[in-house]
Amino acid sequence: MLNHLNHLYDQYNRREYVHPDPLEFLYSYPRREDREIVGLIASSLAYGRVCQILKSVSLVLEQMGDSPYLYLKDTPAIEICRRHRHFVHRFATGVHLSALLVCLKKIIKEYGSLYHCFLEGFSPSDETVVPAMTLFVERINHRTGDRNPGHLIASPSKKSACKRLNLFLRWMVRRDAVDPGGWDDISPSKLVVPLDIHMFRISRTLGLTSRNQANLLTAMEITEKFRIWTPDDPVRFDFALTRFGIRDDLNAADIMGCLN
């Protein structure tokens, strides 16, 4: 199986297969401080139809100019709320988005960057990033004031698979042909599979889990199975495998043929 997975990785883990994926927004930002903000916004909105995801992320970033980091750092909270008040993305409204952006503004003021905030809760002795993720979400939610980002930021403490947050961490921790990286003090070995419906179905097909719910326990089980093959990088195959559920030119039913 590992040889087949590596072949799939070599074939599809390329920039030419990124679109349509919100990951593509990160490539326009060489500075880590900007890229992590773009990544968190893009991953938080990564639900629903992909064309709408790309449209919504584009609308947010257009308001933030060349440097999202400086935008959040220098723009008053009341102005952030004003600029994004009409935003709508499925269940997310301008209230949710503004709450998230203002929370990130406070994080930047206190820690200097999202990266340093995350590192405050991270220990190399932790088996995975889940404890650090939990603390990171708590730090965001504790700075909401009278506004709340709602479902845009999920927490492992509620047993959620936290697909979007794990996707963000994959983008920021791994560094290869598609994942740009930047959070260099966190080992890819600590990452957890971003468990969306595509990866859940594929994992069941491959016998990586028999669970019926795509929750945190299932994500951890699948990650452990991948860790047997690639202990230093258990989410190595995530991008290649999920292309079959994202791109119209790849048929999800053909994935078993690629692995046989």
Salient structural properties:
260 residues, mainly alpha, 53% helix, 2% strand, globular
Write the layout of secondary structure elements.
Blueprint: H1 2-12, H2 32-44, H3 50-64, H4 68-74, H5 77-83, E1 88-89, E2 92-93, H6 94-111, H7 114-120, H8 130-141, H9 163-173, H10 197-205, H11 216-229, H12 238-246, H13 255-258
Antiparallel strand pairs: 1-2
Overall 3D shape: globular
- In terms of DSSP E residues, the strand content is under 5%
Write out the strand line-up for the largest beta sheet, numbering strands in chain order.
Answer: 1-2
Question: Largest sheet, described in full?
Answer: 2 strands, antiparallel
Radius of gyration computed on alpha carbons: 18 Å
Q: Total domains, how many? A: 1
- Structure classification: mainly alpha
- From the N-terminal CA to the C-terminal CA, the straight-line distance is 8 Å
The helical percent reads: 40-55%
**Spans where pLDDT lies below 50 across 5 or more residues:** none
* Mean pLDDT metric: 93
Number of separate strands: 2
| Helix and strand element order | HHHHHEEHHHHHHHH
